[in-house]
Design a protein that fits this description.
heterodimer, A: about 110 residues, mainly alpha, B: about 100 residues
Chain lengths: ~110, ~100
């Protein structure tokens, strides 16, 4: 029983560290990328990978009690609202006339 | 204070989240357009939710998760409200729609 507990703790630590790395990859991408649309792509790494891995790691760490339910609530809410707000930002930028920069286009020059 | 292995892991996660928050704030300051700034604000809110959760686990008070949940709710509403305001110049009902340029 103690061995099983150790294994779950190791999985939880690995998930937390991996989620932190995902979060910092997303932040670095949203700082370094040259274009608004690529920054949007980089920021969604935080919303998808980082949040899920960190909350899953914390939920495994805490066992199964009220804290896990709160983490599940936070995760479900962020899982719904993260793509929604990303879509709202992208839609507002597209309506206002922001275009992807020219050097990121492909050979045919299609503008989506 | 830091004397067990989970606290060490949570401290590393906290430091990485803090660095990520600073990077997003630099983009918020530099961002050339409005939408970069809105995106950075939204991303900063997500980072803050995770930061509060990890801070609660680090200090053995997971009741901070209530505050994180509340912050997630407020963050979503704030992003939608900012976008709606800069599109229609009004938060509530839009009585006069702007004419589209032809």
């Amino acid at each position: 029983m103690n061995f099983l507990y150790d294994i779950t703790q190791l999985i939880a630590w690995a998930l937390i560290l991996l989620g932190s790395v995902m979060v910092i990859i997303g932040a670095l991408g949203s700082l370094r990328f040259p274009d608004f649309w690529s920054r949007l792509h980089a920021a969604s790494v935080t919303d998808s990978g980082g949040v899920i891995l960190l909350l899953l790691g914390m939920g495994i760490h805490s066992g199964f009690n009220l804290i896990t339910f709160k983490l599940f609530l936070i995760g479900a809410f962020l899982f719904i609202t993260g793509p929604t707000s990303s879509h709202a930002v992208a839609n507002a930028a597209l309506v206002s006339g922001a275009k992807p920069s020219k050097k990121n286009q492909n050979e045919t020059g299609d503008e989506g | 204070m830091i004397n067990t292995m989970p606290q060490f892991i949570f401290l590393i996660a906290l430091i990485l989240l803090f660095i990520a928050m600073i990077l997003v704030l630099i983009r918020l300051y530099k961002g050339p357009t409005l939408y970069d700034r809105v995106l950075s604000t939204n991303s900063f809110g997500t980072h803050t939710v995770l930061f509060i959760g990890v801070l609660g686990f680090l200090s053995d008070r997971p009741d901070f998760l209530d505050i994180a949940l509340l912050y997630a709710l407020i963050n979503f509403v704030a992003t939608i409200a900012i976008l709606k305001f800069f599109r229609y110049r009004a938060i509530g009902d839009v009585l006069i729609k702007r004419e589209s340029k032809k």
